[in-house]
Amino acid sequence: MAGYQRWEMTPQQARLLQEELRAGLILAGGPEEDVGLVGGADVSFNRHNNKLYAAVVVLSYPRLEFVEVGTAVMTAAFPYIPGLLAFREGPAFDAAWARLRHRPQVVLFDGHGIAHPRGLGIAAHIGVLYDMPTIGVAKRKLVGRYDPPGPQPGDFTPLEYGGTQIGVALRTKKRAKPVFVSPGHRFGFTEAVDFVLTCCRGYKLPEPTRLAHLEANKLRKQDL
Questions:
Q1: What would the pLDDT profile of 26-41 be if each residue is shown by its tens digit?
Q2: CB–CB of 179/139 below 8 Å?
Q3: Which listed residue, 12, 67, 216, 219, has the most CB atoms within 10 A of its CB?
Q4: What span, in angstroms and rounded, lies between the C-alpha atoms of 178 and 181?
Q5: What are phi and psi of 210, to 5 degrees?
Q6: Whole-angstrom Cα distance, residue 17 to residue 157?
Q7: Which of 175, 64, 185, 69 is nearest to 136 (CA)?
Q8: Listed residue (141, 58, 140) closest to 102, CA to CA
Q9: For the segment 138-159, what is each residue's pLDDT rounded down to a tens digit?
Q10: Cis peptide before 62, with omega less than 30 degrees from 0?
Q11: CA-to-CA distance for 138 and 181, rounded, in angstroms?
């Protein structure tokens, strides 16, 4: 199903499409099959030339050994509008995903799932489009309030917005700020947190998105 969406549209059309896609979200359970491969996705941006640098890393699971990486570089066609970043970064993800020989059963995104003003960050957006289990793991929150989680890795507190839980603030490393985990598609809150913790190896970011972030930044620096 990769690339079937027509990404070119106005911001008003994009907001309407978000409402339609949000109706298709499944926010329960976890992957229905045994997970042998996990993906991590990140898109870096060069503000000087308006280029996007996408990386999708595939790792074995649960050992988290490197399998392959798909990358793509392209000029952004959609303007930078907070809350609509999926429409800007989505085409680059599509292109990187299409270059993979191995398709992971779960993908973690450096970005948000439903912890988003309209409940459809890039992890949720892509999850619905591809109908695959996805989780958002963001370094900063977009919306909502939370109490600081405890100091130990695995401690977490709810992230709430408008009286509704939209994610969790999760401590993944001692003396590091929490990350913000939210279901994308075909994951519940508890299952998303548990899965992210199995992907952590002593860094603040889980390995799939940590390595994807490094690959995307390497692409960007090579293009300077």
A1: 999 888 778 999 999 9
A2: yes
A3: 216
A4: 9
A5: -65, -45
A6: 31
A7: 185
A8: 58
A9: 999 999 999 999 999 999 999 9
A10: yes
A11: 7
CB contact at 8 A, 67 and 60: yes
Q: Is 132:109 a contact under the CB 8 Å cutoff?
A: no
Query: How many angstroms separate the CA atoms of 57 and 53, rounded?
Result: 13
Among 136, 162, 111, 125, which residue's Cα sits nearest to residue 18?
A: 125
**Encoding tokens for residue 24?**
């298709």
Span 11-222 CATH architecture:
2-Layer Sandwich (3.30)
Question: Which tokens hold the place of 52?
Answer: 């996007």
34, two tokens: 């045994």
Report pLDDT digits (tens) over 75-127: 999 999 999 999 999 999 999 999 999 999 999 999 999 999 999 999 999 99
